[in-house]
């Protein structure tokens, strides 16, 4: 598929897409207008503030999921429940049952978002920087349209936004043929939390889907405005560079000592030169599969007198749809073989310790086309292109399991970002109006999908 430059953002590469016209009839337009009229930005913001102030690091989501189960029951007025996974984490789900029966029965649509944050303020300094900024701590601050606080833009506003869709549907009193289900899972961040049983990398949503929440379609709300039919996979690699245990009191150049740290710098440079070539060679469909060295570990800071015999290098390599984790493993293995050949005095071992496949929903699938029509309704212009991206989401696993899914995005980060908030940080600055753009697209997709029979949807 050909690549083009984004008409709205010249620095971004996109792929052309086709959107099939299927205008809403008068009854559906009326239903959609009622739902949109019942969307309440203040209510969504207030929920977002409450969610920010409940810490939910990956593997520790029990409190926030239990809060949402109560909120969905008491405030939204739907049947909802907490789904425990371990003693310290769990998911939450709720539903508005459809009224269709027999031939008029509709689809089961799941609105989904993860609920965990990628930072744990108690342990993440200095990884996050010299100190925690306000977008990295679970304390909310509202400044006009903006809300600050850990996870404000990812995932807390996604949870608040999808909840607002269901709340508006409930308040509008529209009659849906199909079941509107809503769920939030822990373990959605690309984090295998060793402090909490290695929970993460989509473990929560896997538990959710394999314990009764299997839908016909899924809509996932995530940052980056647009509609996405593909999600990248991930491969994590550990490279170990070996030397010998040393002692700082030994004369430099003494026989019998080999540094592991200095040769590791050479290996790092080799990997850094390979990664852009990997991206170029494997880009395909809607995925631009980036890779980054993310961690280096050696020695013991309590014993700097003893240079480490092992230096470990960790990296994340994203997987595009036309490749598999096995393909990526083979390519990385070839890189290591080439490094060994060029640097014969460097002793290296490596392993792949995380492997998640990319996920694809057919571009002509009902849920993708419906979401694109929702974008057109919001923007009042044709949906012609989708930006290439490499952001990890649970949608990859959902798609890989065979569930058709649309990832609907909202503009993020706020443009321009407030001074001093460069980088991803705590993913902690949300614009309510920006998030509402994605929320309105989701609302359109709900009405477009759940007012039709399974036969109309070709289910």
CATH superfamily of the largest domain: Zn peptidases
User: Might you state the CATH topology name of the largest domain?
Assistant: Aminopeptidase
Largest sheet: 7 strands, mixed
Low-confidence stretches: none
Strand order within the widest sheet? 3-4-8-5-9-18-10
Q: Could you estimate the helical fraction of the residues in percent?
A: 25-40%
Strand content: 15-25%
What's the number of helices?
10
Provide the CATH top-level class of the largest domain: Alpha Beta
What's the end-to-end separation, in Å?
A: 28 Å
CA radius of gyration is 24 Å
Task: Calculate the mean pLDDT score and round it.
Answer: 94
The secondary-structure element order is EEHHHEEEEEHEHEEEEHEEHEEHEHEEH
Kindly give the count of domains: 2
| Structure summary, number of beta strands | 19
- Proper CATH architecture of the largest domain: 3-Layer(aba) Sandwich
Shape: globular
Structural class: alpha+beta
